[in-house]
Specification:
Two copies of one chain form a homodimer. Chain A has about 300 residues and is α+β, with helices and mostly antiparallel strands. In chain A, about 15% of the residues lie in helices and about 25% in strands. In chain A, the strands form three sheets. Chain A has a nine-stranded antiparallel β-sheet. In chain A, strand 4 (about 95-100) and strand 5 form a beta hairpin. The longest helix of chain A has 12 residues, at about 75-85. In chain A, about 55% of the residues are buried. At the A-B interface, strand 5 and helix 4 of A face strand 5 and helix 4 of B.
């Protein structure tokens, strides 16, 4: 019987990539061009960057740990407010309150049950985009995007830019984390967060503060049973998954941290990895695409020191 | 406390849309432009088309029923082969064998356990795209696409086209169903099918036969626990969800069919609905996008006679 297989390696913003050994089992032995897995495995140590503990959250669920990288550069006031809420234990005992298919999973407190905000702000002026500066690293993708004049990567983030306006913003790719808000643009405090679990809802770009990306444990969120209520909100307490705790990694003893590293998006290895994904040359493909969407580019993550 | 809300209505290829009443609760009363929910609710009866029972599958799982619309026009030999397999009860007792985060859920038989194919074909020449003909209805989207020169909708399907080559193909949007294959382009028989559960893996377009779309029960597939094996395959029998049966709707007594209707993509209502999604004017939005991606356009489904 033929092998179960429709693709050869990890995709999109997925976190788990195959090892070269696993790939090799699915490939003719004489493939001589560099493949995604080999490129990642061969990336030098300085192509990897450790997560900044101050900008890393551990969201602990009964099912396991979700690790979120915070985008302080892109929404500094909101990220600082999230840290304040986390350190006041605002999220400990909160719940997954929403799971809408092909859209978002959201967490916070059910309506009317939220504890006091303490020192945290209840409103924050919009942090939906930032100015393009000459110092901003940017690895541009050459292919058109449905939503923005330019897309690419900056400091490990999927990014869109509008040079005419001089603005840049994070894109709503799978696994990206944003700040739920009401109609008022300043109504997102960071007390309710969501993660994208479907096709990128890019129409939300520049309409809401994006504050991070799930870099481990995404599957714990994406498989939450969908809510039966309007917009996928759960209607009863029994449907909600309770959050054990949310912590800033910097507040956790170093020995208890998850030592994750990200492939630097300004590294040669990343550039080669994108090229290998843009032009698929594995034996399986009959029609290499030679194009790629910003949300289809994998952003590799590994445990420190792991050789892939 | 502010309302839990980050968007106003259904998105992407999601199946469940809000009713206008639900929308109204989240909107200022004085919004005077037509909104998505109102457009769908106001669509005349002839804007809806019933599913063709011969091209409809019922995939019955312990968790409930998944309804799949088959794309006979796009892959006629493969779709006929799937009907042959279904009618030989090939899939009854098969399993969900793979769940890869941000990618696909796949079903069929674990390796080495497949029953005989009977009259069904084991190999089928590639049905990865078709010729553009003058008769082919096509509602084009005006915005750029990362992967294809043209994208839009034809007979209820999300479609890409290359006028220079004179070819058209179905796009790998969320909820679309395809035929797993090995390296040989003719190795996809329809005995293993997959559904897209993440950001559209459009690099698979034109590399594999697309044969349908999930039009009900998508959430039963998208929340399958992710597999721990390579490419999300389950490693043990205990992880797999057993398929009770797969049936062609035409083989089921009429009274037991699910009377679903699709909004015709050549209707005025659909054109208005796309426009309302392309330019979001609801109070929540501060930056209307005025652009849309083919996989972000909802393809509304309702129960026959349902007024929304």
């Amino acid at each position: 019987m033929r092998a179960h297989l429709i693709v050869l390696s990890c995709l999109g913003a997925a976190l788990a990539c195959e090892t070269p050994a696993e790939q090799a089992a699915n490939l003719p032995a004489n493939d001589s061009f560099p493949q995604f897995g080999d490129i990642i495995a061969g990336a030098p140590p300085d192509a990897w960057q450790a997560l900044d503990p101050r900008n890393t959250l551990y969201l602990d669920l009964p099912q396991g740990r979700v690790v979120i990288r915070l985008a302080e550069q892109w929404a500094p006031v909101t990220v600082e407010n999230i840290r304040t809420l986390v350190r006041a234990q605002y999220f400990d005992g909160a719940s997954i309150i929403r799971s809408q298919d092909n859209y978002v999973v959201q967490w916070g407190w059910p309506r009317g049950q939220a504890p006091a905000f303490g020192a945290a702000r209840r409103t924050i002026g919009p942090e939906f985009d930032i100015a393009i500066t000459p110092e901003m690293p940017f690895m541009a993708l050459p292919d058109p995007d449905s939503y923005a004049p330019q897309v690419g990567f900056s400091n490990g983030w999927p990014v869109a830019r509008d040079p005419e306006r001089g603005r840049a913003w994070l894109t709503h790719c799978y696994g990206m984390v944003g700040v739920a808000r009401g109609d008022a643009p300043n109504s997102g405090s960071g007390s309710e967060l969501y993660v994208v679990i479907g096709h990128a809802p890019r129409h939300l770009d520049r309409n809401i503060a994006m504050v991070g990306r799930v870099v481990q444990g995404m599957e714990l969120l994406s498989t939450m049973p969908r809510g039966s209520g309007n917009l996928g909100f759960y209607e009863t307490a029994g449907e909600r998954t309770r959050i054990r705790s949310v912590k800033v990694a910097a507040d956790v003893p170093e020995a208890e941290r998850v030592p994750l590293e990200l492939l630097r998006t300004d590294s040669d290895a990343f550039e080669q990895a994108v090229a290998s994904r843009r032009s698929r040359r594995e034996a399986w493909f009959v029609e290499p695409t030679n194009r790629i969407n910003v949300c289809n580019v994998p952003l590799p993550v590994r445990l420190a020191g792991e050789s892939r």
